[in-house]
Amino acid sequence: xxxxxxxxxxxxxxxxxxxxxxxxxxxxxxxxxxxxxxxxxxxxxxxxxxxxxxxxxxxxxxxxxxxxxxxxxxxxxxxxxxxxxxxxxxxxxxxxxxxxxxxxxxxxxxxxxxxxxxxxxxxxxxxxxxxxxxxxxxxxxxxxxxxxxxxxxxxxxxxxxxxxxxxxxxxxxxxxxxxxxxxxxxxxxxxxxxxxxxxxxxxxxxxxxxxxxxxxxxxxxxxxxxxxxxxxxxxxxxxxxxxxxxxxxxxxxxxxxxx
Length: 259
Fold this sequence. Notes:
There is one protein chain. By secondary structure, the protein is mainly β. Helices cover about 5% and strands about 45% of the residues. The strands form 2 sheets. Strands 1, 2, 3, 4, 5, 6, 11, 12, 13, 16 and 17 form an 11-stranded mixed sheet that branches. The chain is globular, with a radius of gyration of 17 Å. The two termini are about 30 Å apart.
């Protein structure tokens, strides 16, 4: 297991990048329409761009080499800019980098558009998948931010198969906090996420798969939406300190922009 107490700079290699993080090599790259972090020493994928959703549509293959328009390293962060085809001038810019104290890895997501009235209740789908995180046939539990976004699961953005396995939980402003091997911690700012979707594997104490639907707002030209997540491995902080880690994350002022 990794211990991210130290980090080095990203190394770019074409459409992917690597970073030494706590003694393990993490690769940030593409897989089946997703762009996220993977390591040979750790099962699953983490802090991953998964897709896009809006009223009446969902695209789980939005983040591919074809939609990547720029990738660069700026200081300790890897910046990737996507312009997915068929999404009405949408630009998604994402930044991965060590947290300020080096204890975790942050993902910051920014969305903007060049159009008006086209992107209704836009969600940028991000998430992590740990051990046994294939949720293809598992029940899905949705925790909505408020009563307005509680209806988004049923506005045409989810497939009939997903709806047959989906249940909406009471309104919640707390992310799951624990996912994957050995107590990995993960946090998202409550105001940034419209719905948190987890698999509900029978007998599992924690979900194997967590998906955060960021934003859930209409996006118009001139508006910029921003959200962020943090992942922390247990060696960086004992599992019983999850509340302290979450408080520290929420108390940090957000960056002014993903640049």
